[in-house]
């Protein structure tokens, strides 16, 4: 057999292959890779760098400022694209590569696709040890990039140019697989990047990837239907899988037809519009009073596309009904069977439609549905109170959320956040209007995701207003992709809440009996307290900036800067001690069994009592 071949370096083969992978969005064929974020060094500039230059017209390369930042932006791009499109990230060896490991874990936890292409040490080992090679004394095959293994869904090290053929095919399979989806790392030895090989021409044929929709197994489906038919007080937990399956319409139809209230996880929030009468809002540790009251009583939970992490289950103490059954509608068996769930392995959209057809006209007890609606009305009153305007010198996070919400106008908005006190407040209070309008990285809750995430969301959804809400601590950890957003003309708005420290951890510390210690700046070991001028800092990177002194000033600044073409940073001082008291649930954070502090002893007593309501198994 004579195959047509083309002589390319391994890196050129990678670049060409990436340009040929396509998908279909709204009937239109588009490249599945939205681009490549790159920071070059000796480990990738000559190989991958030269190759990316040759395809720059079809596969854009973006220079970032920090490898973790660019990887977070790439991951946000995939999340905002509902995993239908994604990006690649290339780095040098050593520190550049390892700067992406945290992001790999972030993508792994959140089940988000991203292709990492870190450079690696020489496969031929002739110049060893090359600059930035860590050198394991006991194992010649280990390099720094082995750190990616536990946080990649698929890892491969390319030590010969032809290995890239099966590796890239496997990479595409993982990146586009709704169940397996996550980070892929192809560690590219720097000498091999530059080696030529006669690649089969067919390797570069255009390929179109469309999401696979798995149908449920008939027996599992029958069991799920029977369980729901027997339910007296059913609820639906909407997780991220609802959004990734683009199943919002089916979810709304299901809830309405069968009269079942819906509660939302962080990843699942925006599955239904907040105004939908059966959307009870957030559930669990940061849940609304409405969701949590129903969750306490429910006997059957239909968990759709949820990982059922501790924030959702209230550290597994939220559900109080002895008869509780969980139906795990999930594309991933690992998640479907959690907490003794009755698995229903299926795409969310398909699964909801099949269960609904099986349920026919079956409806939950109307008293249960009506109670849900009343509980929601009660919650909305509390939420409106928490977010109402104020002239307080130091407003609460909730009051800032209210201001941001009021100034959205009719524009389509995506709210981005990840860590600190804000995620809990936003989970309760943000009023998402449509799927994807709420973008929280709360699987890994990585400080520093926010600014980079805003960039990724804007690249994925340029037509939307992207608003990043971030604490001073998270901003300090990673903010430099503001410069990238200016370079790329990718405007978003950052509302920076400066409470002079790690407010949420300080509160957690005090709740667990600890002294105010090492969280708020005033409680740290210091010679002088830093007076950080965040507006000046962001302005130095080219952002439009404002420092505002009150909620009305914030609203005015948001309105006034809405049409600015450049990324805008608005800074407001906030109170580190206030959070929304309504709603919420206990969270399992272990309190010391012995301590000299009376406050710890008291907290431990409360902790032991709370543990008694935790389910086991
Ligand atoms: C990379 C990383 N380091 C540490 C933490 C633990 N942590 C969670 S929130 C937080 C403080 C966040 O401070 P800030 O952004 O100012 O928000 P605030 O708590 O004040 O609302 C810390 C240290 C984390 N989530 N991520
Ligand atoms: Mg703070």
Automatic annotation (TrEMBL):
InterPro entries: DHS-like_NAD/FAD-binding_dom, Myo_inos_IolD, THDP-binding, Thiamin_PyroP_enz_cen_dom, Thiamin_PyroP_enz_TPP-bd_dom, TPP-bd_CS, TPP_enz, TPP_enzyme_TPP-bd. Residues 222-353 form the Thiamine pyrophosphate enzyme central domain. Coiled coil: none annotated. The keyword Mitochondrion does not apply. One of its GO terms (biological process) is inositol catabolic process. Keywords: Hydrolase, Thiamine pyrophosphate. It holds the Pfam family TPP_enzyme_M. Gene3D superfamilies: 3.40.50.970, TPP-binding domain. It comes from the Bacteria. Residues 50-132 form the Thiamine pyrophosphate enzyme N-terminal TPP-binding domain. GO terms for molecular function: acetolactate synthase activity; flavin adenine dinucleotide binding; hydrolase activity, acting on acid carbon-carbon bonds, in ketonic substances; magnesium ion binding; thiamine pyrophosphate binding. The keyword Transcription regulation does not apply. Residues 420-572 form the Thiamine pyrophosphate enzyme TPP-binding domain. GO terms for cellular component: acetolactate synthase complex. Belongs to the TPP enzyme family. This is 3D-(3,5/4)-trihydroxycyclohexane-1,2-dione acylhydrolase (Decyclizing).
